[in-house]
Amino acid sequence: MRILPIASGKGGVGKSMVAANLAIAMAQAGKKVVLADLDLGASNLHLIIGHRAPSAGISSFLNDTKMDFNTLVADTDIPNLRFLPGDAEIPGSANLKANQKNALARRLLSLDADILILDLGAGTHQSILDFF
After folding, report:
1. C-alpha to C-alpha distance for 104 and 98, rounded to whole angstroms
2. Mean pLDDT for the stretch of residues 46-70
3. Is the pTM of this model over 0.70?
4. DSSP element (H, E) containing 100
């Protein structure tokens, strides 16, 4: 699997738009793509790709690492593109503990995809740098 992290030290520069459009283009080219919203403090990538608001996302998994991670990955209306929502509803989800980062990284690496695109949060927080 090829992993493409999209990041910037500043918010509002178009990271999510780049991530979404890159994911769509690669899916249209026939690649199996998973687009993951790792902007856990301000997850809104679902709006850009026209996906319904998630009832559960990465933050839900971080609070219950025994849950079936694959149930969080949703199909989209775009062939070959699946979406992993962030879920900014849970306080503190942007400040991950080491065990949470490790559990999430293991699950992300186990996804069935040709390409994994990570839409990371703004800034240079250690969690963002770790996923980059």
Report:
1. 10
2. 85
3. yes
4. helix 98-109
